[in-house]
Amino acid sequence: MADHDVLGDETAASLFARVKPQVESLPLPAGYTIEWGGEYESSKDAQEAMFKSLPMGYLLMFIITMLLFNSFKKPLVIWLTVPLSIIGVAFGLLLSNMPFSFTALLGLLSLSGMILKNGIVLMDQINLELESGKDPYLAIVDSAVSRVRPVSMAALTTILGMIPLVFDAFFGSMAITIMAGLGFATVLTLIVVPVLFAIFFKVKPAK
After folding, report:
1. How far apart are alpha carbons 46 and 37 in whole angstroms?
2. Quick one: average pLDDT of 55-62?
3. Average pLDDT estimate for 115-137
4. I need a surface site. Which of 7, 50, 65, 108 has the fewest CB within 10 A?
5. CATH fold for the domain made of 70-207
6. Whole-prediction pTM value?
7. Which residue has the higher pLDDT, 49 or 109?
8. Which SUPFAM superfamilies does the annotation name (predicted)?
């Protein structure tokens, strides 16, 4: 019964990590080698293919945001919030005791798109407030306050939609990655984007 409980808490990745060094330490006759196939090989090939195309994909996304705002600083403000989601992802995986699997990596990549969308919504509102002739500092504050509800509701619906996948053995880590990362990053987006915008464009408090 105890052995069953131990194995029940083990994932394929953690079991492989525990068995791999033991198998590779076995003495082999001359001319023989060990190669790992199956899920490990498929996952490794998929990750290598993905990382090859990843830089070009992110570069294209950055160029699109530059064209969208006709600026370099504004997209940079939005993109600087993306790495902050890793904090929420780390807490989520640690608290749920789930591994950072390949599906979790896919969740992290899709998470960046969701965070960018929230940042674009907030940045667009700041632009609208500035174009109306409002003081820059008040425009930043009013934009952040007015976007709290739509940005939060969009994040909440995504998080709630991920709940059924939390208990799935294969997609559980991906669901936790998206839920924790998006929840944490949404709060930070509403705080960090206005702060970075004020710093980058040297906006002072209204007198």
Report:
1. 13
2. 84
3. 89
4. 7
5. Multidrug efflux transporter AcrB transmembrane fold (1.20.1640)
6. 0.73
7. 109
8. Multidrug efflux transporter AcrB transmembrane domain
